[in-house]
C-alpha cells in the first residue's frame, strides 16, 4: 500500500495539477494551484520579481503561479480562501515522493518546526520569550495527530493570518497588548 | 536592541538606510571608503547577499566589517543560495559579532545572475525565514534546540509594491509582519500611484502600526542606468515616458537626479512611510545633495542627539 498509493496519487494529480509529489499537499489553500510548480517553490505568495504582464521572473512565458492561485482562490469555499494568506511552514524534505493522502490522514503533513510552535514572533518584548501561550502558525493543525505536537486545541490561531482589515486586533490576547505597545513604533 | 529599532520606535524623523555597493576586491579599504560615503547621512547600511544572483564578498563578512567601522549593519539574508541550516548559522554567526538587524529576502532567481547553472535552493521562502529568525530571537533553532542567551534580533523583510498582484502585496507584507518582521524595505517603485495605493492599504489594515516601511530610491547617472535596471533587475519596471524624459533632457544626469528626488519627496509625503532606503549608483556628491534638498540632516537630525550614541547622528549631513 505504501508503495502503491504514491503511484496512484501521482497518476491522478500529475495531469491535473502538475503535482511534484512533495508529500504535503496544500492545494486547497492555494487556489488549487500547486506552489511547487513555482520555479522558486514559494509556498507563501509571489516573489517580488513578477513581471509587468504577470509573467514569471524565471520563465517569462509562464504566468506567475501565485497570480493564478489568487484568481482561482476566489472560486473556492470560504474556509479554504481564508487559509490563503496563512503562513505555510517549510517543506519537510523527508516527505518527497510519499503520498500526501497518507500524510494527511496521519497528520504528518501538518508538523511545523518546533521553534514555530513554542515561540512567539514578537520580538524585544515580554511576549517574545519562549512562551507559555502557544503560538501556532496555521490554524488548521489537527492537534491530536501531530507528531511533535505541543499544540493545545483551543489555543487560538497565533499568526493571525494576515489580518483582514477588521480583525487586526482580534485574534490573540498576547498580540493585543503588543500591538498596543507598538502602536507608537511607527507613528 | 538595535539602534535602528530605537530610531523607528521614536519616530522623530525619517530613518534612512542605504545599500552598500558590492565588494569584489580591495578588501577593507574598499569597504571603508564606501561606508564613509554613506556614514554621514544614514542610520544603517545593508550588507547585501549575492545581489541579483552574482557572487560577491559574503553578506556576513561585509556586515561585520560595517559594524567594525561603527555603523549599524543590516544583514540581508537571501533564500536562494542556502538551506535552512546555513541560513540559521549565518544569522547566529553574525549576531556573535553584534550584527543583529536582519533583513530576510526570497532573492532573485539564479537565472538573473552570471552563473545561471547554479542550483537554486529556496529551502525556505522569505516569510518562513522571518518566522525562523523570530524563533531564534525567542531562543530556539527551528528544531527546538535552545539558544541561550537568544540573539536580540531586529527582523525585517522586503516587499515590492510595484508589481502584480498588487492587491496581494499588502497581504503578503502582513504575513511577514505576523511572522515577526518589524520593518520592510520596499522595492524601488517608478509608479507613484502604486506606492500610494500600497501605503494607503497598509495603513488601513494596520500594517504600519507594527511594521515600519522604508521606501527604496536609487540614484542613477542617467537614462542608461535606468534602462539597465528596467531590463535586468527583476521586479523593477520603469515607464517609457520616464525613460524618455531623462533621455531627452539637456542634462540627463541632472534629470536622473530629479527623478530620484521626486520619488523620495513623494515617498516621504506618504503617511505610513517611515523613511528611505537608498541605493547609490552615482557615488558622487548627489547623496549629500539629496539630503539637503529633502530637508533631512539639518535641524531635524539634531533630534537624534537625545538617542543613545548613534555614530550616524552627527548633524553634518548636507553641509
TrEMBL record, chain A:
| Record InterPro entries | DUF5981
Composition skew (Low complexity), residue ranges: 152-164, 173-187
Q: Which Pfam families match?
A: DUF5981
- Show where the Methylene-tetrahydrofolate reductase C-terminal-like domain sits: 7-78
Return the annotated region ranges for Disordered. 112-187
Designated name of the protein: Methylenetetrahydrofolate reductase C-terminal domain-containing protein
Q: Which organism is it from?
A: Lipingzhangella rawalii
Automatic annotation (TrEMBL), chain B:
Name the reaction it catalyses.
(6S)-5-methyl-5,6,7,8-tetrahydrofolate + NAD(+) = (6R)-5,10-methylene-5,6,7,8-tetrahydrofolate + NADH + H(+)
| InterPro entries listed in its UniProt record | FAD-linked_oxidoreductase-like (IPR029041), Mehydrof_redctse-like (IPR003171)
Its family remark reads: Belongs to the methylenetetrahydrofolate reductase family.
Q: Which GO terms describe its molecular function?
A: methylenetetrahydrofolate reductase [NAD(P)H] activity
Give the keywords, sorted.
FAD, Flavoprotein, Oxidoreductase
- Pathway listed: One-carbon metabolism; tetrahydrofolate interconversion
Q: Which cofactor does it need?
A: FAD
Its protein name is Methylenetetrahydrofolate reductase
**What SUPFAM superfamilies does this protein map onto?**
FAD-linked oxidoreductase
Gene3D superfamilies per the record?
3.20.20.220
